[in-house]
Design goal:
- The complex is a heterodimer of chains A (371) and B (322).
- Chain A contains eleven helices and twelve strands.
- With 371 residues, chain A is of the alpha/beta class.
- Chain A has two domains: 4-223, P-loop containing nucleotide triphosphate hydrolases (Rossmann fold), CATH 3.40.50.300; 224-257 and 277-371, no CATH class.
- In chain A, the strands form two sheets. Chain A has an eight-stranded mixed sheet with strand order 6-7-8-3-9-10-12-11, with helices on both faces. Chain A has a four-stranded antiparallel sheet with strand order 2-1-4-5, covered by helices on one side.
- In chain A, strand 9 and strand 10 (233-239) form a beta hairpin.
- In chain A, helix 3 (110-122) packs across helix 4 (126-139), helix 4 crosses helix 6 and helix 6 (158-169) packs parallel to helix 7.
- In chain B, 73% of the residues lie in helices and 0% in strands.
- Chain B has helices at residues 2-24, 29-38, 41-59, 72-75, 104-143, 148-164, 167-178, 182-209, 212-219, 224-260, 273-280, 289-316.
- The chains are: A alpha/beta (371), B mainly alpha (322).
Chain lengths: 371, 322
């Protein structure tokens, strides 16, 4: 039984006189204890709304409808009443947000904001809470934590603010951490440090992490399982290496091809996906990605593609998937020999390609077992 | 070489020490605002005016040369209001006499105390009631659950009702209802400023309720009452404080107006700038100074509060930061 089982989650915003927006349209994924799961996609594909819906943080407004299930440890988070939801937040499930500056209260010191969580969920007060807060800051790599506790958010650097937010999120050792673009507002070197910190925390505490990002480099460095979202649906799910080596969905392939690479030749251009995320076909009318897809065939329009489950625990939602490199589509079915991955699909941050697991031999072993 | 080197090192050490010391103390938003305030000439002028005013109001009455209620001019036969003889400034009586032969300067100084008292107390009444109503409505609207919207709407309709009435008319009706006295003036002027404070705090709190740090605190399971008190209110209070300073100016003017209309302290012997203004009316042709002095007092004091208030608004508004 997975720690978090999101099943057919859908979020719609209805406004009178306006088109109903289906921000999330039947997303399903699962997270095991200690696992790092990525939700990837470009802006507007429903990543953040998914995470907010799971946490019950979507702004309460008329016309908002949340459907499906998000079962965490046996109870459906979407059906909880407000009180028990508040009890779970911060204690069992915590969240890290994108912008560390605006996520911290500017007029009260950091220490107060950290101890607030300790007081709420662990009943700590006064000196004990201050001591624990200092230890937390120390654990997330903030030097001189005693002094930092008395400081205000604007006195910390961007990286340190995000560390402080992470400290608040892990204060009660939650079993699930949702990080919504935790490194987007930071510069590259700080990004790497923060990711390293998150990785350490996950490894040491066995916390499961849902990583929401548009940055494939982040995904390549951290995630065990990756869900690629497009227009509110999961279009491809795979473990890390197979995804990077052999993307099956044309959208995933397009995302990978559009990542700038260090080993690209001089003067070589980036390969963007044509069109924009607004050029979608509504899912009931076919594949939402079809208007932008280079591999479009007639079957793409008319009926939404089903999620195809392959043997090696990966799935994609496409009627004309990208063939496994080196094989013709017909040969793919009986493919058993190891194939060499096409180097062009490996982004700069990914590990160098070595022979991939052979498809067609039952579920492939997980590449990275987390302790 | 060694000497200059040593001096240089000393200098650097001192700089390091200074910067370290500044680093140690948390520079809060308020300290930052105060620093900006000190650099603003308008704020300094405002503070100087107010400092003089408060000083005069608090300790002035102990040092006035004559009693403000003693008709010394009539006793000495200098003032004959019936015949239109009201002497002006002289060496003994710096601003002359009023129509009852009392020393105008002494009355002006003692009147300052009344004015300050009315201004401060009525603003505090307005601030307390307004902030309470606005705070509850803002918290209910921003964070409240099922009943939040309902509470907010009820409170705000009441505030709208107050706001719909012209402020002076409202103040006059309250003063007339409660009978003329200084307390009445304070309550009336206070009630008039309630809707401003309430709407301001509510609006500010609702805006803050949608901010990221409230979302982050909610995501950590912090209780709503705690979020309202530790996160939303401290971030929303700045405009209310600015408004309080500006309201002091209007409160003083409104209090003077009520006194002028005869709704203030019925014992007109106790000097109050508004009453002095009213008393001077019949003698405008003979001694315009009797009206000009209290009027100047009201205007300059109100100007002081307005200058300070505007400067504070600039200092506290993050959008105007340079």
């Amino acid at each position: 039984m997975a720690l978090l089982e999101v099943d057919d989650l859908s979020v719609t915003f209805a406004r009178r006189g306006q088109r109903t927006v289906r921000a999330v349209d039947g997303v399903s994924f699962s997270v095991d204890a200690g696992e790092v799961v990525g939700l990837v996609g470009e802006s507007g594909c429903g990543k953040s709304v998914t995470s907010l819906a799971i946490m019950g943080l979507l702004p309460k407004q008329p016309g908002l409808r949340v459907g499906g299930k998000a079962v965490f440890d046996g109870s459906d988070l979407l059906q909880l009443d407000d009180r028990s939801r508040r009890d779970i937040r911060g204690r069992d499930v915590a969240m890290i947000f994108q912008d560390p500056l605006s996520s911290l209260n500017p007029v009260i010191p950091i220490g107060l904001q950290v101890t607030e969580v300790l007081t709420r969920h662990r009943g700590m007060k006064g000196e004990a809470a201050a001591k624990e807060a200092a230890e937390l800051l120390d654990r997330v790599g903030i030097p001189d934590p005693r002094r930092r506790l008395k400081e205000y958010p604007h006195q910390l650097s961007g990286g340190m603010r995000q560390r402080a937010l992470i400290a608040m999120a892990v204060a009660c050792q939650p079993r699930l951490l949702i990080a919504d673009e935790p490194t987007t507002a930071l510069d590259v070197t700080i990004q790497a440090q923060i990711l390293e910190l998150l990785k350490d925390l996950v490894r040491d505490s066995g916390t499961a992490l849902v990583m929401i990002t548009h940055d494939l480099g982040v995904v390549a460095g951290m995630c065990d399982t990756i869900n690629v979202l497009y227009a509110g649906r999961v279009v491809e799910t795979a473990t890390r290496r197979p995804l990077f080596r052999q993307p099956r969905h044309p959208y995933t392939e397009g995302l990978l091809a559009s990542v700038p690479r260090l080993d690209a030749g001089r003067g070589e251009r980036l390969n963007p996906i044509p069109g924009s995320v607004r050029d979608v076909l509504p899912w009931p009318d076919g594949c939402a990605f079809a208007p932008r897809c280079a591999r479009r065939v007639d079957e793409c329009v008319g009926e939404p593609p089903e999620l195809v489950l392959t043997h090696d625990a990966r799935s994609y939602r496409c009627v004309n998937p990208v063939p496994i490199p080196g094989l013709t589509p017909e040969a793919e079915v009986r493919a058993s020999a190891p194939t060499t991955a096409e180097p062009g699909t490996v982004p700069a941050q990914a590990e160098p390609a070595d022979p991939p697991a052979a498809p067609g031999f039952g579920p492939a072993p997980r590449e990275e077992e987390t302790p | 070489m060694t000497i200059t080197g040593g001096k240089k090192r000393e200098k650097i050490d001192r700089l390091a020490e200074l910067s370290a010391r500044e680093d140690e103390q948390g520079v809060s938003l308020w300290k930052e605002a105060f620093r900006r305030l000190r650099r603003n000439p308008a704020a300094i002028i405002g503070v100087v005016i107010l400092a003089v005013f408060v000083l005069v109001a608090v300790i002035g009455p102990f040092f006035v040369p004559y009693s403000p209620t003693d008709s010394i001019g009539i006793r000495e036969g200098l003032v004959k209001s019936g015949q239109g003889i009201i002497p002006g400034a002289s060496a003994d009586h710096w601003l002359g006499f009023d129509h009852q032969g009392r020393d105008e300067f002494s009355r002006l100084v003692v009147g300052a105390r009344q004015t300050l008292l009315v201004g401060v107390v009525s603003t505090l009444i307005g601030l307390a009631v307004g902030a309470l109503i606005g705070g509850v409505a803002g918290a209910a609207a921003g964070l409240g659950g099922r009943w939040g919207r309902w509470i907010d709407t009820t409170l705000m309709r009441f505030i709208d009702m107050l706001l719909a009435m012209p402020s002076l008319l409202l103040a006059v009706s309250i003063a007339a209802l409660l009978g003329a006295s200084l307390t009445t003036v304070m309550i009336a002027v206070g009630v008039v400023s309630v809707p401003i404070f309430a709407r301001l705090l509510r609006g500010s709190m609702i805006a803050q309720s949608n901010s990221d740090y409230v979302l982050a605190a909610t995501a950590l399971g912090v209780k709503r009452s705690k979020i309202a008190l530790t996160h939303v209110v401290p971030n929303s209070i700045a405009p209310v404080i600015v408004q309080a300073t500006l309201t002091l100016a209007t409160a003083i003017i409104e209090a003077a107006a009520l006194s002028f209309l005869g709704l203030g302290n019925p014992d007109s012997a106790i000097p109050e700038w508004g009453v002095m203004l009213a008393d001077a009316q019949p003698y405008l042709g003979i001694r315009p100074g009797l009206a000009i002095y209290p009027a100047l007092g009201i205007i300059i004091t109100a100007l002081g509060f307005t200058l300070l208030g505007e400067a504070m608004r600039e200092a506290l508004d993050p959008k105007l930061r340079k």
